[in-house]
């Protein structure tokens, strides 16, 4: 989806989800900065090289790391889920920029939403599957 405002450059939007995290991503042509919830991406992701590598993976695959500024509104879950949600949102936004990007991103697995979520707790059990210790007598 492309949004055009009178005084702003064109931006491309993608939504990513993982576990209970949702990330709304906007790609704007720029210098390659990452802003998450109004903070620099490095400080929001606690300077973790793993989270930064995961979230910028689609851009590095296409060689567009310094071409777009990334503005993200992330909510829910923890940093791992949010980093993966940002990755999916960026990949979807890149597909709206150029449909040919889809081939390279799909081959690397960036367009697949990870369906794993926490299993609910059942009654009579301590967790989803952990039962109390069995006593014969």
From TrEMBL:
InterPro entries: Ribosomal_Su5_D2-typ_SF, Ribosomal_uS9, Ribosomal_uS9_bac/plastid, Ribosomal_uS9_CS, Ribsml_uS5_D2-typ_fold_subgr. GO terms for cellular component: cytosolic small ribosomal subunit. Keywords: Plastid, Ribonucleoprotein, Ribosomal protein. One of its GO terms (biological process) is translation. GO terms for molecular function: RNA binding; structural constituent of ribosome. SUPFAM superfamilies: Ribosomal protein S5 domain 2-like. Belongs to the universal ribosomal protein uS9 family. This is Ribosomal protein S9. It comes from Dicranema revolutum. The gene is rps9.
């Amino acid at each position: 989806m492309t949004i055009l405002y009178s005084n702003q450059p064109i931006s491309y939007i993608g939504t990513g989800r993982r576990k209970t995290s949702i990330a709304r991503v906007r790609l704007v042509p720029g210098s390659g900065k990452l802003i998450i919830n109004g903070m620099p991406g490095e400080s929001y992701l606690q300077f973790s090289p793993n989270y930064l590598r995961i979230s910028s993976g689609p851009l590095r695959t296409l060689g567009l790391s310094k071409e777009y500024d990334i503005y993200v509104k992330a909510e829910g879950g923890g940093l791992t889920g949010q980093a993966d949600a940002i990755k999916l949102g960026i990949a979807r936004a890149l597909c709206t920029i150029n449909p040919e990007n889809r081939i390279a991103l799909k081959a690397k697995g960036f367009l697949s939403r990870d369906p794993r979520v926490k299993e609910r707790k059942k009654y009579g059990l301590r967790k989803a599957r952990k039962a109390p210790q069995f006593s014969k007598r």
